[in-house]
Model the fold of this input.
Amino acid sequence: MGLLDKASDVGSKSTKKPVAKAVAKAVPVAKAVAKARPVAKAVAKARPAQEGVTAKAVKPKKVRATPEGLPGDFEIASPNARRIAGLTNFVVNLGPIFGFLFSVTILDAFTTIFAIIALAALTLNLIIVPIMSGRTLGNFVSRTKNITSAGNKPNFLHALFVNSTGILALLGIIFLMIFAGSIFSTKGSEQIWASVWSILGVTFIILYFVNSSMKKGSESNQGLYDSLFGAFLVKHVPAEGEVSTGFIGKLEGMASYGDRFTQRQEDKSAKKAAKLISDAESKEAALVSEKDEPSKDESESIEDKKEKKDKKKAK
Done:
C-alpha cells in the first residue's frame, strides 16, 4: 500500500506542474492588457481637447444691440454726420455773435446791423425752423433729425437747449470777465448783482461740460438735454411719397453740401488706406530682398571654397 500511495503522489505532482506553467504563461497577456490601458486613457484625454477646439471655433459673434428706447426703424447718426451738424449750427449760431462782438470792440461801428443779424440767425435756427420741421439747419445739411422713443419729433425746446449750450457757455465766460471782479470791489446791491451774474456764468459753463461728458459716456451720444427729452439723433430717411416744398424744400436741398463733404472724407480715408497698404507691401519686399542677399553671399563663399580646394588638389 505504501508503494501505491507514493506512485499516486508522483502522478499527481506531474499533472499539477503543467497547469502552473500554463497559468504563468498566461500572466504576460494580462500585463499586455494593462499596458494597453494608458493608450485608452490618452485617447480619452485627447477627446476633450478636440471638443474644446471645436467649441472655441463655433463661438457666435457678438451683435451690437440698438440703444435702449430707440425705435427699431431708425439708425443712430454717424460721427461724420454729427460733425457736419455741429459745425453748421456753430457757424449759424455763433458766427453772427462773433461778428457783433468784433463790431463792438474793434470797429466800433455797424453794431446795430450785426446785432439784428445775430438775433435773426438765432431766432431762425433755434425757434422757427425747429417748430416747423423739428430740425435745425445743421440737421438739414447732415441729413439727420431728432426723434423720441415713440418716433415723433421732440418739443422745440429740445432744439433750443441743445443748440444754445455753446452760446450760454460763451455768455458765462463774458459774465465772469465783467462781473467777477466787482464781487470784491463793490458793496450793497452792486455786489449782489455781480454775484448773481457770476454764479449764472459759472452755471452755464458747468452745464456745457456736463452735457459734453454725458455725450462721451453714452452709447447713442445722448447729452444732458437729449436724456431729459428722451431724444435721439438719427439718420433722416424720407418716407415713401414724402416731398418737401417751399421753404422746407429749399432747406432739404442744403443736404448736397453735406454729401460733398462726406464724399471728400471718404476719398481721403480711402487714399490713406491705399497708402498704408502700399507702404506695408514695400516693407515686405525690402525684408525679402534683405533675406535673399545673405543667401547669395553664402553661395559665393561656397564657390570660393570649392575653387580653393580644386587648386589645392591640383598642386
